[in-house]
């Protein structure tokens, strides 16, 4: 770790020693024993400005207390049929691990409809997966690989993306804002695959609006992305902390992930489906029948049963305080909506069927 980074972390540590016990308690669920690494995540998210990073972390901890996030893994979405409906319309799952040990999170962006439950259930489900990742998946990966694993990689499937995606912009903006403010720097790389023309046209306009730190993380791959994800890449490992001129580095070639960890929608070039896999539902990490979701749901129910002796389990969604969208993100959402509408206007004849019945949130 460079001297400047060390000094920033030390300053941050001193500030955190002064916070009250309630904030310290919820912070334990955030750092999971890796306090300095967590402080560095918040520092990176605020360009190494200690004051801004400190405020960001305090706001995050206060949000956790007010929204009872520490208890969210003891609040199952019930009944089971409702949770299955959420899983069928919010396509996300764990397909495996990268060669470096990072969890591979697959997301079916184009075919997620978010139309089977209320917004609160989708937000609850999203936060539960974040918390399960941070409290269970990442600590297990750290133990398995014998080194600290604090981030994941995400593979985003754009199959089926169409103008009706405008209906989900409000929800996706809420979810992404929650992630940015409370789970910063948890994703190393976003791999975008199965890209339709509508995404390519929109990406040209949106990309320049993103922060450089975010742009560096996004890679748009050709086709299903299988060839790129499986081929050998040059990786540079920093042997001592963060990348500085004085640090020793080691270089080696290896795959991003092996075939077993490849999301099902990447396995066949041109297969064009987020919902199906080579062997039915077995390899489809989106479905509730996949081992990851079975383990997650079982864990949440077990945590709930432990708390039932204190308070009876109630049906209903877990209401979370939605953070205010910052002006930059609001402008980005507005730009995406504008580009989608522009695309629709330019292709009215060819997309007449897709446009029928289209309603934009707030319209």
UniProtKB/TrEMBL annotation:
**Domain called CRAL-TRIO: residue spans:** 79-232
At the top level, the lineage of the source is Eukaryota
- What is the name of the protein in this document? CRAL-TRIO domain-containing protein
Enumerate the SMART domains for this protein: CRAL_TRIO_N, SEC14
Recorded hits in Pfam families, A to Z, give: CRAL_TRIO, CRAL_TRIO_N
- Residues spanning the signal sequence: none
Q: What is the lineage of its organism?
A: Eukaryota, Viridiplantae, Streptophyta, Embryophyta, Tracheophyta
Q: Which InterPro entries match?
A: CRAL-TRIO_dom, CRAL-TRIO_dom_sf, CRAL/TRIO_N_dom, CRAL/TRIO_N_dom_sf
């Amino acid at each position: 770790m460079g001297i400047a980074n060390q000094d920033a972390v030390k300053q941050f540590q001193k500030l955190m020693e002064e916070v009250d016990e309630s904030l310290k308690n919820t912070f334990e669920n955030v750092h999971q024993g890796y306090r300095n690494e967590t402080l560095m995540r918040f520092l990176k998210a605020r360009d190494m400005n200690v004051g801004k990073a400190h405020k960001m972390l305090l706001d995050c901890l206060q949000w956790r207390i007010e929204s009872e996030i520490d208890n969210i893994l003891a609040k199952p979405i019930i009944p089971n049929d409702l949770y299955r409906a959420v899983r069928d319309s919010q396509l996300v799952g764990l397909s495996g691990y990268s060669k470096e040990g990072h969890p591979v999170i697959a997301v079916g962006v184009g075919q997620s409809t978010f139309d089977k439950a209320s917004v609160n259930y989708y937000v609850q489900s999203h936060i539960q997966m974040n918390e399960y990742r941070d409290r269970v998946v990442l600590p297990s990966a750290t133990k398995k690989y014998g080194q600290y694993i604090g981030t994941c990689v995400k593979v985003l499937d754009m199959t089926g993306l169409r103008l009706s995606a405008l209906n989900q912009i409000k929800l996706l903006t809420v979810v992404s804002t929650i992630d940015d403010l409370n789970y910063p720097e948890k994703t190393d790389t976003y791999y975008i695959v199965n890209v339709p023309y509508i995404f390519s046209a929109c990406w040209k306009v949106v990309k320049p609006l993103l922060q450089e730190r975010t742009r560096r993380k996004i890679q748009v791959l050709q086709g299903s992305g299988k060839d790129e994800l499986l081929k050998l890449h040059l990786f540079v490992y920093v042997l001592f902390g963060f990348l500085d001129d004085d640090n020793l580095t080691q270089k080696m070639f290896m795959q991003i992930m092996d075939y077993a960890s490849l999301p099902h929608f990447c396995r066949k070039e041109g297969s064009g489906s987020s919902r199906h896999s080579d062997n039915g539902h077995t390899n489809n990490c989106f479905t509730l029948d996949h081992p990851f979701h079975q383990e997650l749901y079982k864990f949440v129910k077990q945590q709930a049963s432990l708390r039932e002796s204190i308070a009876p389990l109630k049906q209903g969604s877990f209401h979370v305080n939605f953070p205010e969208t910052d002006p930059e993100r609001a402008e980005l959402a507005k730009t995406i909506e504008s580009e989608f509408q522009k695309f629709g206007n330019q292709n009215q004849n060819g997309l007449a069927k897709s446009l029928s019945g289209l309603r934009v949130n707030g319209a």
